[in-house]
Amino acid sequence: MGHLFTRFHKNCKNWSSGFASFLTSHKQGFHRLSVAIRCRIGSMEEIDLALLDTGAEWSVIDGETAEILGDEIGPSSGEINIDTRLGKLRGALHRVDITLLAEEGCGRDLTVNGTVIVSKEWDGPIVLGYRGFMERIRIALDPGFLDDRQVFYFGPVDP
Fold it and tell me: Residue 4 — pLDDT band, cuts 50, 70, 90?
């Protein structure tokens, strides 16, 4: 990916701390992720593919993931109901570290203490939404028209 770094990253180097490829129309179980990015929730060893959804108001994780993380999930700041493409969803707002993973040689990972809805009812993928997550970072998506490889750039709001 070195050629991508020199070709595209020079325009993003003033704000981007890292970047990685992303997948489009990725099938994950019964779900299709229109933009799938690699991330880590809390200190979990497992790397997840999450749906990066600029149209989603909140990020969402399931209750099982929250149970595994235990005390890493901050205390609830209130109950919330939202409408999703899978129907109405009930959950609670919590804080948790979300790490965006840079590919090797492509800058640094970025960890954000984000706000997520934890819902025992949710059986979909991890969703990374705007409020409490994307509003705390800078992002850019390069659709890969020049070399057929999609690239997700990310960086802190305050470099």
Answer: very low
